[in-house]
Amino acid sequence: MKEKLEVVRGSGNVFRDLGHENADAEQFKAILATEIVKALDRERLTLRAAQGRTGIAAADFSRIRNADLGRFTVDRLMTIINRLGSRVEVKVKVRPVRSVAQEASA
Fold this sequence. Notes:
mainly alpha, elongated, 434 Repressor (Amino-terminal Domain), 6 helices
């Protein structure tokens, strides 16, 4: 007999869906890291070339490429984006906390 699976709509933040305590900050860091990787790819920068251009260690760019973001703050990631020649625009929307079940029924 087939087991019936329930489909649950995610919240839009995988870290929240996985129960991470600082889900919003982790999501924001992941978005910033993605933009850094896009900039490196767009400019076809090697890790060493990125280091030379920004003064940020090549090992840090390697960590960002590998989504190893634990030692990075949002501020530091924004600084790296700035040094790569881009600017970050942040739009903040504050809303009441809702559970995943409430999100799915909305």
